[in-house]
Amino acid sequence: MAAQPQSLPELSGHHAVLFGNASPTKKMLSRHRKPAHVLIITDQESPLAGAVALLRNQLFRVSFASGWHGFYQAQAWRPDMVLLDGDMQQMDAFMMARLLSQSQDTSTIPIIFLVKPGVNGATTEAFAVGAVDCVPKPIYPEELLARISVHLRPSTTPEPAGTHSSSDSSGTQEDILLRNALDAIQADVGSIHTVRQLAHSVGTHERKLSSIFKNRTGKSAHKFIFDKKMAAARRLLARTGMPVHAIARHVGFPSVCNFTVAFRRHAGITPTTYRNQSKEEMRAGTYTEI
User: What pTM did the predictor assign?
Assistant: First the structure.
């Protein structure tokens, strides 16, 4: 292994993601245990405003990215679905699809191409590079929602040991609070900066949530959150080409400097050194994730 982790005092950061808002209308995806995350890779967001509004209304979590950043975000988030704009200017969409299909972290993510009518061979090539479906422009929100619902894969993310899906309402109040907190951390650890923020998001207060984490996991809530941030950072450093500054933002640090200090105290080496050592171990067949 590249290095052994050490403890670190609390640090803060910032990373924004678009979340869906609840609606009184019937939710088409209630059968899924957690809100599905859809990553839209495009350099033109405005034509998709209507579709995004409907997805949020149906409790989808939606994020945007463009160009190479879209590939890195797919590796980082490992979303449930990628919508890929076939008419991007910043990057060839078919090359993007090949990269997603070939990457270990994204090869199982369903890709739906958004194709411009009248482009000869676009649909055929989209399927050839791994798309599960093609939706013609202009996009009709209801049709897109139906297509996504058909192709959305069941969640394959393992639950933390000793916990169950938050959709299961059984158990004590503490069980439910812990499940919801773990789900929030797993969904977007980079946006969680304090235990108080996490407690507020699951409907309790900081002291109670801290006590639950200590009793149930053996760690303080802060230590648990921080360890998840570092685990995400190690994975991205070792297994992707995502720039260090982008990894820093993804796991919730305001700057590369803050992230580097935190990572060095945690792992004993800088992020760049960890990445280089991990690559060497992978080539030698000796790499294992901490």
Answer: 0.67
